[in-house]
Amino acid sequence: MFAVTRLCESLRNEQLIRNSMVFGLVVLCLLVLLESRLIMGPLTAGALADVLALPFQGWPPAVGHVLVIGLILVVTIFTFRITFAHVLMVYRFIERIIGDGPRGEEEDEEELDVAPSRFLGQRPQFSRYSAASKAALDDFEDADEREDELELPSTPSRRQSPSRSGKAAPAARASRQPAAPLVDEEIYYDDGFNSYDDYSDKTIAIEPEEYEYEDENYYFDDEDPLNDINLHKQHISMVPRGVHDPQPLDITDHTGATRGARQQALSFDDQTVIDDDVVLQPAPGNEPLILEPKPRAEAAKPGRQIRQVAPNPPVPVQRQASAATPAVSAASKKMAAAVASANTPNIKSSWQLPKIDVLQAPDSMKQQIFSEDTAALAKLIQDTLRSFRVEAEVREEDISIGPTIIRFGIRPTGRPQMIVDEKSGKMVPVRDASGQIVYETRTRVSRIMALQNDLALVLEAKTIRMEAPVPGRPYVGVEIPNKNSRLVMLREVLESKEFHAAKVKSKLSIGLGKDVAGQVRVGDLAKMPHLLIAGATGAGKSVMINAIIASILMQSTPDDVRLLMVDPKMVELNMYNGIPHLLSPVVVEVEKVVSLLKNAIAEMERRYRLFSQLGVRNLEGYRKLRAQKLTQGDTSLNNLPAIVIIIDELADLMMAAPEEVEGMICRLAQLARATGIHLVVATQRPSVDVITGLIKANIPTRISFMVSSAVDSRTIIDMGGAERLLGRGDMLYLPADAGRPERIQGAFLSDEEAQRLADFWRQQIVQHALALGIDPNAANVQSQVEPGWELKVEQPDEFELEDELLDRAEDVVREQGRASISLLQRRLKVGYSRAARLIDLLEQRGIIGQSVDGGRAREVYDHGQRGGDGHSLADEADDIMVEEKARNDFLRNQASRFQHNPPSRTPIDDDEMDM
Ligand SMILES: Nc1ncnc2c1ncn2[C@@H]1O[C@H](COP(=O)(O)OP(=O)(O)OP(=O)(O)O)[C@@H](O)[C@H]1O
After folding, report:
1. 51, 183, 305, 542 - which has most CB atoms within 10 Å?
2. ipTM, 2 dp
């Protein structure tokens, strides 16, 4: 028997028999042998039996029998771990077999009498909680009936007796909820079932009182009755038990919760019908969109819907004006509209888009599939939770395997509600109409979250991140590093269906990377409309910026998108110098940035004036209008490309001219969207003096790479989590319209690929110039700086001693009896750098003193004829407060000036129409 059992054990890889049981069985055999020797007499049961019987020689036979039988009973109980519950079970079973019909109330009352002591497991009377427990009992118990019991603190055992009878149990339970139940989970877990789901599949012969034993308070320290957790528990206990109807699904809530949770797989193998007559068809490779009049039979179908149709035979790749398309005129008009709505300029472009093989193909390594390892980890998580008495499960379908992390979904379950099955008489879990188990108590998500470090310990993970709950999913996500991590190459993202679908809609689509389930994630800069990227040094910001630039360069010609780049680090974006998309060479001097931003604001204002003159609201409207005019042969409107301003290190700019840069970035961020100007700002210093409140408020879409602390994470994405990222492109992406960030492994682009891409575009400048009949040498020069985008260095020395404002500044400081930069800014209405320069000049002239201890206000030495007004300390403090307030007002006004004073409708002049 042992041999067979051991064989089974090794086959099933689990322990079926304990050593103590083996030992017990051996002892039992010896005892039975001894008993048979005592019964049958000497020399009948063998030599061993005679040896065993030696100690009994000379004893009365009855004593020997009683002793040996007693020993047999004791050893049996220990060997098979027989408990009182087993005895009761057998008793019930026999009773049911030989019983004479249903038991009456009398019998129930009898049982009440034989119930275990009501004092069993109760807290001592001197417990500091006893008064509160008593108060809780007062609320729930019938005071008249149980007056005597109220003398004592809450007694879990009191709830056992009524629940023994299947009939009286529900009412009794409902009335006795506040009392803390007893705990004896050994029985609960000792029955060989691994999860509550097992209970759902099999019926269990467990008596009701065994379930009544469980008590969370017993295991956890949160016993304080005034603790909100316990109040909450009491509240839950008041909810009537029994089968509940499932909650009706609120579609609005559901949609809100699942929005942005996971991108739906988009099929781009098929065509998308835009209208009855026009089909948007995916172009092979990386070619632009194809528009094709639909066959007649298809066009006859009613309705104007976007729907999928079966793929048609390939059509020639053409990106031509609708006027040039030899097709029905109605179809060509619709084509033009579709082209315009797809952001495709309606003119033939002589620029060629690069082929996808400019980028490196991903290695052939396949994504890791669900493996033994993963299953073992899932079981480990579940077992760990179970060992902490947290009822939860990890299902196979809730495991997502991403390129660098694996996410396990922990579903909080709870204690199932049990009823007696009428047929078998056993306890089975209650199920609702849809077959789901109804839980008596649910596991709190916070209890799972509290085990973050314990899970990290058992999983031996470098770092784990928990997300509760995962948006749109019924589980808590535990993300651990994937040991078989792999790079996500930009090429595989750009080749994906998702990106193909996105680039049909917008020329500013960017490939972000892959999410935790390995799904490609793309973004649309036009919708963002500005992006803030932050993270510690070496976390992957520059690679992300390169991926954004490459995504644009792979799908957009200079007619579609123009770029402005600021790279104070001087080495990150230099390779893009000379590409035709650049409006001006990459700016590496901080002093030129203010000028660049001023140019951008001027361009924005110019576009606003143009749009208001034409009666369109934004760049999209302008493009539609232009497409319409082109179909009518009117070429008066010029192409307006979108402009993307990329700033690689905001901190350097904020150090140089904080107020000017902040003001201008905010102004652009607030207003530039409609004019097609977008900002991508990166910084490795996520501190509040760089990412100020104003900048954050105006740049809603953010990406956070790994940071060093939760405070930094909060500065960037308004919540912790980024400090638990892995670095090397692991990021949290927070879209403008989502409440929670999404974890993505950023697309990787090597420097060589970026170089190849830039070279591709640089080589085209000459061909393009020849195609347009321009002198290639002149074209090369032209491509460096676009007219109107020349940048000038705003030298501090610009304001010489002869500064016209110096005299007024002198007057101001004498009048106030003190001097500060912000005072001059406010009173003279100048920028920060000019005010700072004026202060320096005043100091050089000896009118004011040096700044003391880094303070802002300086003393005035030369009071002129007026003399000082003898400010007291209190006056000084008042002044500082007034000044602070004025400074904040100024910033706010500067940022929102345009909103309150929209550009006036001035007649458009010829210059503007010639853009
Ligand atoms: N998406 C990615 N996939 C794989 N590795 C990456 C990814 N992004 C970055 N890395 C790795 O991290 C290194 C540092 O990246 P990167 O230069 O972009 O950091 P950074 O945040 O710009 O740092 P700094 O602020 O110092 O410039 C890269 O050389 C690369 O090896």
Report:
1. 542
2. 0.97
